[in-house]
């Protein structure tokens, strides 16, 4: 029976555990999840150029305006872009520079041979020297590093060579001397032969992973497998590098030709009134998504053909026959750029014109300044040459308006600081006064120690005079009756005359006013108080080393200390019983 119960218990536990595990797993498998929005984090901008202003600007399609620009050194520059990687090639300076989109400024820079033909695609930049056909492939996904003198070219293609980079980073190159189309899969890879070609006047592009050659001498298309397709009209321009498609687009003087790989050709009419006869009058077509774009500056005409929609033919506002129109493409963004005046048209927004270059033009430091205020730029060598042996404090030059504002600002700050400094000074003075009082108390305690605990032979009067910080009285003065200034412990000047008058009146008075209570000697014997002793007469007080000192209403007694006399007649504490008066001793004046 017990064995059966144990088995039932084990089976029940296993069943419960299996259910607990299977339930959340089943719910997770069957649940379809929650819908989320797929946010496109890619930048919606494209870079354009303005030769006369020496600017390359960033066009933001979300606001349909230019929102940044970088200044170039010459007018012979072009922009290459792929997502957030943007490069500027300056043919006059023979250099390639990277643009930092975050700060809209030029960054890394490399030098290239003079007159090089540059192509950018994927993550590589191709540099071709036309004189001898030397080809270099430079990685562009990291830091730009290239030296044409120290780096050996991948291959020598000879004169009249062409090279193009695909969107995947592969490179196609044509050598007319060898009559071969080469393919290079990556930087440092060994070139491979694709097909043989015999061309003289030609153009090269890439459609996806395939190479396409336009042979103008035969007016035909040469595919990367060696096949040829004859064109029904004279071709002028081959399309820009584009994504993988089953066709290639060629521009004529008044239309576009869509050429399939199978050999079919379809003409797309642009209704051009003044057909172009050269490459300057027609732009290289662009294939983006399901649309084909073409433009003719000779007639200021635009043609857009999208799959499933009617063709769009419109005029280009502000364009002239002398304009040089170029399509700028970055990811899914496209714009038409005039290299002559920098005008930009949004082809997907009814040819809207964008021309806010003045708003994004960086400020010119030399503009609007004259005389000593004119800005100047010095090289590092000039700075070292003009440097003095001793370092000087930097000097800031300000306009009169700035100087006035600075003075007002300093004045306001000065008034505020004066209030704060006054408060701090009061606090410091109060603290110093408190410390001085504590120091005085400690000095008095040390000075009055012998007075509180006298020894045989001590002069109590001199001790207390030292404590009160007053000059010692003459021998016949037993009582100091002049007031003291509590601030600096010195007699008041205006009361000195009164003190002298008081002394004179005391000499004439037979019964001087008694100060305070009657004092007692330590033995309990009554001691008479005298206002003034006769000159040259020694009283009993002087012989017995008087240990009593009276000042105003303060009585200092031996071993008792200092105590103020109460003036209130209705005082709570009973007064001390006064001893009986004793007759005055011979040789003394006054009453007991």
Question: How would you describe this structure to a colleague?
Answer:
The structure is a single chain. By secondary structure, the protein is α+β, with helices and mostly antiparallel strands. The protein has two domains: 45-360, Methylamine Dehydrogenase, Chain H; 449-564, no CATH class. Helix content is 20%, strand content 28%. It is built from eight helices and 34 strands. A four-stranded antiparallel beta sheet has the order 4-5-6-7, with no helix packed on it. Mean pLDDT is 76; it is low at 34-41, 368-377, 406-414, 469-493, 506-521, 529-571 and 584-592.
User: Helix segment count?
Assistant: 8
Determine the mean pLDDT.
76
Largest beta-sheet details:
4 strands, antiparallel
Question: What would you say the CATH architecture of the largest domain is?
Answer: 7 Propeller
Q: Distance N terminus to C terminus? A: 126 Å
- Beta strands, count: 34
Number of domains: 2
From the 3D structure, determine the CATH topology of the largest domain. Methylamine Dehydrogenase, Chain H
Identify the strand order in the major beta sheet: 4-5-6-7
What does the radius of gyration come to?
55 Å
Q: Estimate the global geometry from the Cα principal axes.
A: extended
Helix content: 10-25%
The CATH class of the largest domain, by name, is Mainly Beta
**β-sheet strand percentage:** 25-35%
CATH superfamily of the largest domain, please?
Answer: YVTN repeat-like/Quinoprotein amine dehydrogenase
* Helix vs. strand class: alpha+beta
Indicate the low-confidence ranges by residue numbers: 34-41, 368-377, 406-414, 469-493, 506-521, 529-571, 584-592
């Amino acid at each position: 029976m017990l064995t059966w119960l144990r088995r039932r218990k084990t089976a029940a536990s296993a069943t419960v555990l299996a259910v607990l595990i299977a339930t959340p797993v089943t719910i997770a498998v069957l649940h379809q999840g929650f819908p989320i929005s797929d946010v496109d984090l890619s930048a919606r901008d494209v870079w354009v150029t303005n030769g006369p202003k020496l600017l390359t600007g960033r066009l933001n399609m979300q606001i349909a305006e230019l929102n940044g620009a970088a200044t170039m050194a010459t007018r012979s520059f072009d922009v290459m872009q792929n997502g957030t990687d943007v490069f500027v090639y300056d043919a006059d300076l023979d250099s390639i520079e990277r643009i930092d989109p975050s700060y809209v400024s030029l960054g890394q820079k490399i030098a290239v041979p003079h007159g090089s033909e540059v192509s950018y695609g994927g993550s590589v930049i191709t540099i071709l020297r036309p004189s001898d056909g030397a080809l270099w492939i430079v990685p562009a996904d990291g830091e730009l590093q290239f030296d044409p003198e120290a780096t050996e070219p991948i291959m020598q293609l000879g004169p009249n060579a062409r090279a193009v980079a695909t969107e995947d980073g592969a490179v196609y190159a044509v050598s007319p001397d060898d009559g071969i189309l080469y393919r290079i899969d990556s930087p440092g890879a060994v070139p491979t032969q694709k097909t043989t070609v015999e061309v003289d006047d030609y153009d090269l592009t890439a459609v996806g992973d395939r190479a396409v050659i336009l042979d103008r001498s035969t007016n035909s298309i040469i595919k990367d497998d060696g096949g040829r397709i004859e064109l029904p009209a004279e071709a002028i321009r081959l399309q820009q590098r584009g994504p993988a498609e089953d066709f290639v687009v060629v521009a004529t003087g008044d239309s576009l030709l869509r050429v399939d790989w199978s050999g079919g050709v379809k003409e797309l009419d642009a209704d051009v009134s003044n057909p172009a006869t050269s490459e300057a009058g027609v732009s290289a077509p662009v294939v983006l998504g399901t649309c084909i774009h073409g433009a003719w500056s000779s007639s200021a005409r635009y043609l857009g053909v999208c799959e499933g929609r009617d063709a769009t033919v419109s005029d280009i506002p502000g364009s002239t026959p002398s304009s040089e129109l170029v399509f700028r493409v970055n990811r899914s963004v496209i714009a038409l750029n005039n290299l002559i005046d920098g005008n930009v048209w949004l082809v997907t927004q009814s040819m809207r014109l964008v021309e806010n270059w003045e708003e994004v033009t960086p400020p010119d430091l030399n503009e609007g300044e004259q005389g000593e205020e004119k800005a100047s730029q010095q090289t590092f060598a000039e700075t070292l040459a003009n440097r003095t042996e001793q370092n000087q404090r930097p000097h800031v030059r300000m306009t009169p308006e700035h100087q006035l504002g600075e003075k007002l600002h300093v004045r306001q700050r000065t008034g505020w600081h004066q209030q704060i400094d006054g408060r701090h000074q009061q606090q410091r003075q109060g603290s110093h006064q408190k410390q001085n009082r504590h120091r005085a108390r400690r000095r008095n305690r040390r000075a009055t120690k012998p007075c509180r605990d006298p020894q045989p032979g001590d002069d109590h009067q001199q001790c207390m005079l030292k404590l009160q910080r007053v000059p010692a009285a003459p021998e016949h003065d037993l009582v100091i009756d002049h007031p003291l200034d509590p601030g600096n412990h010195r007699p008041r000047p205006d009361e000195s005359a009164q003190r002298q008058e008081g002394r004179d009146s005391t000499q004439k008075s037979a019964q001087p006013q008694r100060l305070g209570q009657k004092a007692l000697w330590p033995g309990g014997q009554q001691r008479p108080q005298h206002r003034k002793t006769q000159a040259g007469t020694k009283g009993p007080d002087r012989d017995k080393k008087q240990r009593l000192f009276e000042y105003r209403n303060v009585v200092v007694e031996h071993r008792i200390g200092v105590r103020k006399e109460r003036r209130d007649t209705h005082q709570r504490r009973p007064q001390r019983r006064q001893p009986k008066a004793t007759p005055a001793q011979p040789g003394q004046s006054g009453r007991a």
